[in-house]
Amino acid sequence: MKKVLFATTALVASTSFAMADVDLSGSAEMGIVGGDGFEDQFHTDIDVTFSMSGTTDTGLTFGASIDLDESDADRTIAGVPINNQNGTTEDIEVGGSPAFDNTTQGGETIFVSGAFGTLTMGDTDGAFDWALAEAIIGSAINDDHEHAGYNGNAGLDGTFDGQIARYDYSFGDFAFAASAEMNDENDNDDDDVFGLGAKYSGEFGTMNLGFGLGYQTRDEADIVGVSVTAGMDNGIKAILNYSDLDGVNGNDHHTGLAVGYSAGAITVAANYGIFERVDGSENEGFGLIGNYDLGGGAQLQAGYGNSDRDGVDTDRYSLGVAMSF
Coiled coil located at which positions (predicted)? Predict the structure, then answer.
């Protein structure tokens, strides 16, 4: 992340002053993508994130960030009453970024941190996702190494408006978290989403090990997951992930495995995942990547993914340059 010199400002509290920094970071990609279902085509993408942070006189830290590509979206407000008509309502389209609406989430994240731990709200992971490692290694400009068997560990996040509150606390090699996403929809009586997560990381000889355990619940759905990560000094890394999804989105269980190797500027990796579905079908796939670090924030990326959705096979690929600023 690179600091923008013009963006230092002073925040005025009720009785004290605190200096806050505003940082600007971004990413860009260019290359070519293709695969089943769409023609080979050029790929260009760009993203910008503003991050703000500060410290109070008592040492409390606070901050916020906004991801611009997440915030640019028109919205629909449902059930707006129509004047002079007997209880008639309609859905209306409204412009403007949801990030600047206080009851919606549009790519913004806000936190307060101190000796008590960290409280984060907005576009952040629930405790389930926070705790578990995804079974994937490396990058592709179009995320082609993600496939029908890939699980990003979102769990029940986004069940409602996506505004999540998470508290986390770490001590030594251990950390735990609790999270909630509230039901703000007037037309249903579903329970709020609650989550718990814990993780551990430590060194054992020449190996770094990490363990994650997550749980999330709402109504009659209770999901639980566990992940194990192992990294060795010789550049080999492996990730194993398993989740019991309790029928959420029609999925019963998920298993994922990723293996990668890094040497100098080169990283190569493969991953595999499978969803066992409630109806007895399976969605599975595998992904491959090759990354070469050019230095200075630029990286060559090649990716391939193959998906098998209940016997229907598709694949896709990408090749290009990813840049971070």
Answer: none
Strands (E), 82-152: 89-94, 108-114, 117-122
CATH of the domain at 15: 2.40.160.10
Q: How far apart are CA 93 and CA 80, in angstroms?
A: 11
pLDDT tens for residues 193-225?
999 999 999 998 889 999 999 999 998 899 999
Segment among 91-95, 108-112, 120-124, 268-272 with least mean pLDDT:
91-95
- DSSP letter for 4, please: -
Sequence-separated contacts (24+) of 276-282 with Cβ below 8 Å: 276/251, 276/252, 277/250, 277/251, 277/252, 278/247, 278/250, 278/251, 278/252, 279/250, 281/310, 282/308, 282/310
Exposed, middle or buried by CB within 10 Å (0-12, 13-18, 19+), for 84?
exposed
Domain that holds residue 32: 2-324
- Copy the structure tokens of residue 29: 């990609």
The answer to whether the beta carbons of residues 257 and 272 sit under 8 Å apart is yes
Distance CA 150, CA 209 (A): 22
Element (H, E) at 276: strand 266-277
Is residue 145 within 8 A of residue 259, CB to CB? The reply is: no
288-to-115, 237, 276, 285 alpha-carbon distances in Å? 42, 14, 22, 11
Distance of CA 15 to the CA centre of its chain: 37
> Considering its fold, how many domains does the chain have in total?
1
Summarised one tens digit per residue, pLDDT across range 226-262 is: 999 999 999 999 999 999 999 999 999 999 999 999 9
